[in-house]
Amino acid sequence: MDVKFLKGIGEERAKVLARELDVHSVEDLLYCFPTRYLDRSKVYLISELVDTGTQMQVRGRFLRFAEEGEGRRKRLVALFSDGTRTMEVVWFTNAGYFRRTYEASSSEYILFGRPTFYRGGWQMAHPEIEVYDPSRPPMGNVGVYPLTDTLRRKGFSSKFFRTAVERIFELDLFKNLPETLPKELLKAYGLMPLKETLRHLHLPSDPRALQKARERMKFEELYYLELNILRFARERREKAAGYRLNRVGEKFNRFFHDVLPFRLTEAQKRVVREIRDDLLSGRQMNRLLQGDVGSGKTMVAFLTLLLAVDNGCQGALMAPTEILASQHFDTLSAWGKAVGVNVRLLTGNTRKKEREEIHRMLLDGSLHILVGTHALLEEVVRFHKLGVAVIDEQHRFGVAQRARLWSKGSAEALPHVLVMTATPIPRTLAMTVYGDLEVSVIDELPPGRKPVDTRLFYEEDRNLVYRLVMNQIRAGRQAYIVYPLIKENDKLELKSLEAGVERLRGIFRDIPLCYVHGRMKPDEKDRQMQLFVSGEARILVATTVIEVGVNVPNATVMVIENAERFGLSQLHQLRGRVGRGADMSYCILMSKEKGSRETKKRLGIMTETTDGFLISEADMKLRGPGDLEGTMQSGLAFNLKIANLTQDGQILTLARKAAQDTLDAFPVIYSSDMTASSWSIPPQPGSEALSIILRELHRRFAKSVDWSRIS
Fold first, then answer.
1. Percent above pLDDT 70 for the chain
2. What 3-state DSSP class applies to 581?
3. How far apart are CA 228 and CA 700, in angstroms?
4. Residue 679 has pLDDT above 50, yes or no
5. Averaged over 686-709, what is the pLDDT?
6. Are strands 141-144 and 36-39 parallel, antiparallel or unpaired?
7. Contact, 363 vs 387, CB < 8 A?
8. Which of 278, 366, 388, 651 counts the highest number of beta carbons within 10 A?
9. Strands of 16-85, DSSP E
10. How far apart are CA 190 and CA 193, in angstroms?
11. What is the pLDDT of residues 198-242, one digit of tens each?
């Protein structure tokens, strides 16, 4: 039923709801849940109000109304009294409506809003207003709905949503609403029925009922999300064939026993064994390798590529930037040369003659490993027998781009895929964010690697910081200085790279300095970076473009200006640019003295630990999943209306277990065509449950692009 037909909405309001909240139907509105709840059981005296940003409610009468100001500053101001004190009530829009409604009334009202202390007295702007009814008990927990500025200007309020939902509850549409979870699941996990859940989410009778309703809805959302991810994982495991790489050959053995420059850590050995099991299975490997900067992911990747070469296949390694691809090539070609493995580099700057030679060698099989950027995705790039594809910092690539690399395998079998990231993600979350990839973690650093000494400094300490940088440069080291902005911005009191470069040239006289930022042309950026990589420049001034893709072991200092503007995970990534050699390294977080308590707490975490997983968990608790949604392999939007992946780990674990049990009971789910409008459900025990599950999967995901069939 179109939402415009619901009493009190109409065509114009329906257009606003569609544009602002993507609400088109009555069911959409029913699933537009409050974002938080406020306790409205207490009515305050005006003398008890506090200016803390918290919404409060008072009871009283309007005494008089007056219009003040002119033009855009025009507003309606009412004087409101609770019998002991008075306060102002202000409306900046719809003045005529509010004056007609309340000026002639002598009724008592309940006002609910955010009090502010203004010009020596209390004031509320655009409060919710209800006629006081002494026969009605005071309201308890009340939902606060997501309101944009446009919705507020158009007269929408949380009260409007509550009234609209109450009207939905009276409709036959709601009374006949089908259950969305099988009764077996409701019983097994002690979950509230759907209609009861929806009532308590919008109009909770008490805190306990609200908690049960939230748990039910979170479970449902996460259950279907996990079910849709896992069904593709099952299908792939059963149907997607990969090359069976069962030979540990001469090149691998020679490298491992004679060339390997250091002993593998126990974590690296464990991951290599996990990968080896995948390559022996005959099914396509799709594995995510997580590990902090410097944990040895590249070594694991090279050993995996050697297994492909020893079994008559080729390997590819794709990196997001030309600099990172070149650094991988330098490392892999040196290792490969020692054991007779031909490694070549393909980027946008590769000359035509060299490209043609690479294409020819790929097709005849004489090129064993190709390292490159997005250039590997070009149609003309064809392999003789691509056995393993490694993707570094995979979140920098779109799923459609990764699909093109995946398609370069032969009809005989699919290439095994290893995706690597230095962005640590808690395991429970990774299982969902990265869809149907198996997850491996390198959770220890190689012996001898010193942790980076991270310190927090303020503006008054700047000279001390510059002395530390100068001392490192005089000792033959190099330094990064990172800025949040390229140019000055009058609205943001932040340091900028352009102003910083000029200032630093005056401070560090006679010391070669280079700079990079995201708006530079690729050739100029590469030229500047090369000055630093070669050691010709001693200081690199940059924006976050260096977050991924610079490996300069001689760089021992990282200064991050306005560190409070960065997320913890981003700060950790930046810090990973230093500490890559044997020397003691430093990360200096520069922050404003007047930072909030939360800012000091966040930055304090950086100074206390170098464990990327601890930092990642802290970051996601403080900021939510954020960009992680964009890294999802399956391409399914995280259309979660109430569940939170970072905070609901326990429910997520239960939901995943329930989804796995469901697939065990009903294998037909992962062999069904999700794009079909309906399924013919074969008669079998549990058909009612299966019918509910298939209907819900189709409703939620039938329109999604199925990226889960690629890596």
1. 85
2. coil
3. 9
4. no
5. 72
6. antiparallel
7. no
8. 388
9. 36-39, 56-68, 75-81
10. 10
11. 999 998 888 899 999 999 999 999 999 888 888 877 776 677 677
- Supply the DSSP string of 574-620, one letter for each residue: HHTTS--SSS--EEEEEE-TT--HHHHHHHHHHHH---HHHHHHHHH
Place of tokens 């950026």: 525
Closest CA to 291 of 439, 480, 454: 439
Widest distance between CA atoms in the chain: 95
In a 10 Å sphere around its CB, with 0-12 CB exposed, 13-18 middle and 19+ buried, how is residue 650 labelled?
exposed
Distance CA 224, CA 693 (A): 8
Q: Is the dihedral of CA 452, 455, 459, 461 positive or negative?
A: negative
Q: Say if residues 554 and 584 touch (Cβ distance below 8 Å).
A: no
Q: Are 453 and 586 in contact (CB under 8 A)?
A: yes
Residue 68: what are its φ and ψ, rounded to 5°? -125, 155
**CA dihedral angle for residue 619, residue 621, residue 623, residue 624, rounded to 10 degrees:** 120
**Secondary structure of residue 520 in the 3-state scheme:** coil
CA distance 312 to 250: 12
Residues of the chain by 3-state class (helix, strand, coil), percent to 5: 45, 20, 35
Q: In what order do the strands lie in the sheet with 109-113?
A: 115-118, 121-125, 86-91, 75-81, 56-68, 109-113, 128-131
Q: How far is CA 587 from CA 483, 545, 569, in A?
A: 14, 17, 14
| Strand 478-482 with 539-542, pairing | parallel
Residue 550 buriedness (CB in 10 A; 0-12 / 13-18 / 19+) = buried
Q: Which of 697, 648, 235, 679 is nearest to 436 (CA)?
A: 235
Q: What does each C-alpha distance from 475 to 223, 283, 622 come to in angstroms?
A: 57, 53, 39
pLDDT digits (tens, 9 = 90+) for 627-675: 443 333 333 345 678 887 767 878 988 998 999 899 888 887 766 554 4
CB contact at 8 A, 415 and 406: yes
- In angstroms, the CA 696 to CA 249 distance is 49
Q: Is the pLDDT of residue 48 over 80?
A: yes
Phi, psi of 258 (to 5 degrees): -115, -25
Tokens of 46: 């005006």
Q: What residue type is assigned to position 261 of the chain?
A: P
Q: Within a 13 Å sphere around the CA of 167, how many CA atoms are in the beta-carbon half?
A: 15
DSSP reduced 3-state for 220: helix
| Phi/psi at 428 (5° precision) | -60, -40
Per residue in 346-390, pLDDT (tens digit) is 988 889 999 999 999 999 999 999 999 888 888 888 899 999 999
Region 460-472 average pLDDT: 91
| Contacts (Cβ under 8 Å, ≥6 apart) of 306 | 251, 252, 255, 339, 341
Amino acid type, 96: G
Name, in order, each residue with C-beta under 8 angstroms of 675's C-beta and a sequence gap of 6 or more. 702
> Which of 599 and 132 is assigned the larger pLDDT?
132
Contact in structure between 318 and 376 (CB atoms under 8 Å): yes
Give Cα separations from 42 to 60, 88, 111, 205, 683 (angstroms): 14, 21, 12, 16, 56
Cβ atoms of 674 and 602 closer than 8 Å: no
Contact 454, 603 (CB under 8 A): no
Instruction: Report how far residue 391's alpha carbon sits from residue 372's, in angstroms, rounded to the nearest whole number.
Output: 10
Report pLDDT digits (tens) over 421-453: 877 676 666 666 666 677 888 887 777 677 889
Q: How far apart are CA 620 and CA 133, in angstroms?
A: 44
pLDDT for residue 332 is more than 90 = yes
Tell me which H or E stretch contains 414. Answer: none
pLDDT for 78: 93
| Rounded Cα gap, residues 390 and 404, in angstroms | 13
How far is CA 129 from its chain centroid? 38
In 312-437 the beta strands, taken as DSSP E runs, fall at 314-318, 343-346, 369-372, 386-392, 416-421
CB hemisphere CA count around 292 (13 angstroms): 28
